[in-house]
Amino acid sequence: MIINYHYNNFAYTISKLYEKNIMKKENLFKISLIALAILLAGASRFVSDIPNFSPMLSIALFSGYMFRNKVIAFLIPLSAQFISDMYFGFHPDMLAVYFSFSIIIAIGYFNQEKYSLTKSMINSIIGTVIFFLLTNFSVWLTSGFYTNNFAGLLNSYTLAIPFYKNTLLSAIIYSTILFASYDLLSNKIFNEKFKAIEIK
Questions:
Q1: 172 phi and psi, to 5 degrees?
Q2: pLDDT value at position 152?
Q3: Which of 34, 140, 190, 196 could form a disulfide with 112 if both were Cys (CB 3.0 to 4.6 A apart)?
């Protein structure tokens, strides 16, 4: 099936990361932790029936923080999102969703040198605002449910507020799990502070 094909491609990408870092056992272990965290968080999207309660925003930010290689930082979360979209179905607002996630990945990527757990949580909240504004602007443009004026746009945002609460809650929960777990393991196992992984 097509979904299995893309999952195989994802697994192949992870295996190539192992090959390129075969002499760097510390990186291998970190990549394993990150891959496991992303896969588990991504899998949770398939079991949650709560609208807009998803790990994908947190995964996007986490990936941006974790990898110095831009291609990998963007590829992993966007591929995970595409795989889940294949399962749940494509929709007219996908461009806004992927654009939102790309901005969130970039926020993480360009804040690698300024990392702190507190700042990552603040950036998670900023990410939810970006996602809310862009995706609901797209809904206003494409759905035909709203009038094509400022009042219609405002109505679109107003009616989406209950869904934003789920987005915000899921971002706080998943970001806390991803970043706090990585911080704890990094300190306990490697006795070091956060450091993005270099993959050439």
A1: -65, -45
A2: 96
A3: 196
How far is Cα 76 from Cα 93, in angstroms, rounded to an integer? 20
The CA dihedral of 6, 176, 193, 32, to the nearest 10 degrees, is: -30
Place of tokens 């970043």: 179
Look up the pTM and report it: 0.81
Q: What is the per-residue pLDDT for 23?
A: 43
| Residue 87 in tokens | 């399962």
Domain ranges of the chain: 2-190
SS3 string of the chain? Answer: CHHHHHHHHHHHHHHHHHHHCCCCHHHHHHHHHHHHHHHHHHHHCCCCCCCCCCCHHHHHHHHHHHECCHHHHHHHHHHHHHHHHHHHCCCCCHHHHHHHHHHHHHHHHCCHHHCCHHHHHHHHHHHHHHHHHHHHHHHHHHCCCCCCCHHHHHHHHHHHHHHHHHHHHHHHHHHHHHHHHHHHHHHHHHCCCCCCECCC
Residue 30: what are its φ and ψ, rounded to 5°? -65, -40
Q: Is domain 2-190 given the CATH code 1.10.760 in the classification? A: no
At position 178, the amino acid (one-letter code) is L
∠ CA 128-105-80, nearest 5°, is: 90
Q: Per-10-residue mean pLDDT for the chain, 200 residues long?
A: 58 58 58 71 70 90 91 88 85 95 97 90 97 97 93 96 94 92 74 69
